[in-house]
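The instructor's notes for this session suggest beginning with a concrete chain rather than abstract definitions. Hand out the sequence below and ask the class to guess, before any prediction is shown, which regions might be ordered.
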Amino acid sequence: MSQVDFYILPDSTPISRLQFACRLIEKIFTLGHKIYVSMDQTDEINQIDKLLWTFRETSFIPHGFSNTKYLELTPVIIGPANTSIQREVLINFCIQAPDSCNNFKRIVEVLNDQPHIKESGRQRYKQYCQMNHEVITHHA
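After discussion, reveal the predicted structure:
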């Protein structure tokens, strides 16, 4: 059973979710945990890749993609849903809850006030509860 944290942002801009995720990734990385960022859309993958280099002037978060041959050496991996890659933390940007929930100790969902994001988040919330995960909601 994983702990699932839902972070609810007050605005509706798509970039706000990615920027918030970068701050979370930085915090989780500095605590020494390995992270998998799961995304459905190529444009989001490209955006978060760029943001992880630039979101803070003094920050560097080593990251790579799920097809890298250096998976074990890379603390933050970005890739598609339902991976077999095992990490401590999953940050899920996918529409569906991952089938591979048990590969992660903790799952993070970042939602904002976009109708389709809220609705898919509600569905994932229900799925996680049905799977007996501990679900916690945070209002950012």
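Then share the key points. The domain at 3-139 is CATH 3.40.50.10110 (Rossmann fold). The mean pLDDT is 92.
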